[in-house]
Every structure is written in structure tokens, then in C-alpha cells.
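Q: I have 153 residues here and want to know how they pack in 3D. Can you give me a structure?
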Amino acid sequence: MNMVTIYTDGGASGNPGPGGYGALLMSGSHRKELSAGFRLTTNNRMELLAVIVALEALKRPGMDVEVYSDSKYVVDAVEKGWLLNWEKKNYKDKKNPDLWKRFLLIYRKHRVRFHWVKGHAGNPNNERVDHLAVQAYQTGELGVDAGYESLNS
């Protein structure tokens, strides 16, 4: 099966503050959950990292992927073409260029469509990834978001 549905969410407590991401990958009867927490990061970085990690988890290139996210930052940057303009201008005056570059590397290996979903609106899959993201930074070991900390220390 070449179709994968992904739900992602990210968040930070304090923004910047401790943060985490959650992702749910579904294909046929297969389901996989991913999450991680970081000691200092931002909400937008975690929203984007959730998508990156989920796409990087795909085993084969050329997959048809539907990504559902409650992040206008991520969805609009891709679907409205802003990201390609940022890339052309080498991300001048844009935040998170390290993650956007990493995103484009994996994004271009698949056929990805983004869908915005309203957060905290009762969508069970969106609620699940929200729970994974929060749980990751509240109860897990917190890693270092080197891309954030190196630029903001």
C-alpha cells in the first residue's frame, strides 16, 4: 500500500520553553506513534519537527501522503507556496531555516498533501497527537533542540 495518512502536532509550554511533538502514521491496518520532548524550543519548531520526523519514518520513497495538522504555520507555508519563495531567498529573515531545509529534503521524496484541521475540536487523531506532544515534554526525558538553542543562546 502506497498511501499513508499522518496526523501531527507540536507544542511548547512558555513558547519558548519545554516542548514536544507527536505524530501518528496510518496505512491500512498499520499504526505507528512517534513523539519526543525537548528542554527548550518553540511551538512552531515542534509543529514542523512532527511532520519531518513522520515523513522520515516512511520506509520507501514515492509514497502518497496526506498530512493533517492544526498548524497554520506549517500547512500554509507549504500549501500557499511561501516555503518555495523562502528557499529561493535562502530563508532571509525567516525563522527555523534548519528545519525547513530538513523538511524539503524529505518532502521532495514523496507526494505530500497537507490539510489543516482545527485543534482541540474533538478529532480523535488530532487529540491523540496533541496528547503525545504534551506527554513527551511533561513526562519524558528532554532532549536538546540544538537548532534552536545554538541560535538563541
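Q: Anything worth noting?
A: Residues 124-139 form the longest helix (16 residues). The helical segments are 43-56, 72-79, 82-88, 97-107, 124-139, 146-151.
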